[in-house]
């Protein structure tokens, strides 16, 4: 079984960008944001539980989860938020564990890409963690230009996430993403070699 290496970083730090660079080297990766959406797709047991708990108005006419409505509820009510997390976190974790073990795979490691790797028990799925790091100012600039958000909104999201220094203190490996993409690619290639060696044991 391949080792699972976590890859995390704050909003707009470059997790997806770096994951794609590993992907180009043949590394399999699973995106926790995508899995978090998959587990509440129409027909899923988790979505049925959510509709049962909150009522059918939490569904859109097409049967998909009304995420905005759900966000509003759990933002206002900590108990509902806890209920939802108690349902979803184990479900997401199990699905991540499943997708992280592909049937046919040659490399000794796979990547779990997640903004909440260190904040949730997702880190228990991984043997070590890569942190994609940029200065906060870069994070703000890139997120603003990508999402068309205003500065205050982005600063609020960053303030709600783990502070940069805390995240870095929990890193086994760091990719510095305040550089041109070609330089970042070199770091990724270097780390890939290191991981191939250490995961082959
Ligand atoms: P989120 O947590 O918000 O999903 P993320 O950590 O996955 O974000 P990306 O989407 O990979 O971050 O990167 C954020 C933005 O910054 C994107 O528009 C991306 O193209 C750009 N970007 C990433 N790395 C670099 C770089 N080294 N130089 C310039 N732009 C970059």
UniProtKB/TrEMBL annotation:
<feature type="binding site">
    <location>
        <begin position="12"/>
        <end position="17"/>
    </location>
    <ligand>
        <name>ATP</name>
    </ligand>
</feature>
<dbReference type="Pfam" id="PF01121">
    <property type="entry name" value="CoaE"/>
</dbReference>
<dbReference type="GO" id="GO:0005524">
    <property type="term" value="F:ATP binding"/>
</dbReference>
<keyword id="KW-0173">Coenzyme A biosynthesis</keyword>
<dbReference type="GO" id="GO:0005737">
    <property type="term" value="C:cytoplasm"/>
</dbReference>
<dbReference type="GO" id="GO:0004140">
    <property type="term" value="F:dephospho-CoA kinase activity"/>
</dbReference>
<dbReference type="InterPro" id="IPR001977">
    <property type="entry name" value="Depp_CoAkinase"/>
</dbReference>
<keyword id="KW-0808">Transferase</keyword>
<keyword id="KW-0963">Cytoplasm</keyword>
<keyword id="KW-0418">Kinase</keyword>
<keyword id="KW-0067">ATP-binding</keyword>
<protein>
    <recommendedName>
        <fullName>Dephospho-CoA kinase</fullName>
        <ecNumber>2.7.1.24</ecNumber>
    </recommendedName>
</protein>
<comment type="pathway">
    <text>Cofactor biosynthesis; coenzyme A biosynthesis; CoA from (R)-pantothenate: step 5/5.</text>
</comment>
<dbReference type="GO" id="GO:0015937">
    <property type="term" value="P:coenzyme A biosynthetic process"/>
</dbReference>
<comment type="similarity">
    <text>Belongs to the CoaE family.</text>
</comment>
<dbReference type="InterPro" id="IPR027417">
    <property type="entry name" value="P-loop_NTPase"/>
</dbReference>
<comment type="function">
    <text>Catalyzes the phosphorylation of the 3'-hydroxyl group of dephosphocoenzyme A to form coenzyme A.</text>
</comment>
<keyword id="KW-0547">Nucleotide-binding</keyword>
């Amino acid at each position: 079984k391949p080792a699972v290496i976590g890859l995390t970083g704050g909003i707009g730090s470059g997790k997806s960008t770096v994951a794609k660079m590993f992907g180009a080297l043949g590394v399999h990766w699973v995106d926790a944001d995508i899995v978090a959406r998959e587990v509440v797709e129409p027909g899923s047991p988790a979505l049925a539980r959510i509709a049962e708990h909150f009522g059918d108005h939490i569904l859109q006419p097409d049967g998909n989860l009304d995420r905005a409505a759900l966000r509003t509820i759990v933002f206002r009510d900590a108990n509902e938020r806890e209920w939802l997390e108690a349902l979803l976190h184990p479900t997401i974790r199990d699905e991540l564990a499943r997708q992280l073990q592909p049937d046919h795979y040659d490399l000794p490691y796979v990547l779990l890409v997640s903004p909440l790797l260190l904040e949730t028990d997702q880190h228990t799925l991984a043997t070590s963690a890569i942190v994609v790091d940029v200065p906060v100012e870069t994070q703000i600039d890139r997120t603003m230009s990508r999402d068309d958000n205003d500065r205050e909104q982005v600063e609020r999201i960053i303030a709600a996430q783990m502070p940069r220094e805390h995240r870095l203190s929990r890193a086994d490996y760091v990719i510095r993403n305040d550089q041109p993409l070609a330089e970042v690619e070199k770091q990724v290639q270097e780390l890939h070699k290191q991981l191939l060696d250490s995961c082959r044991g």
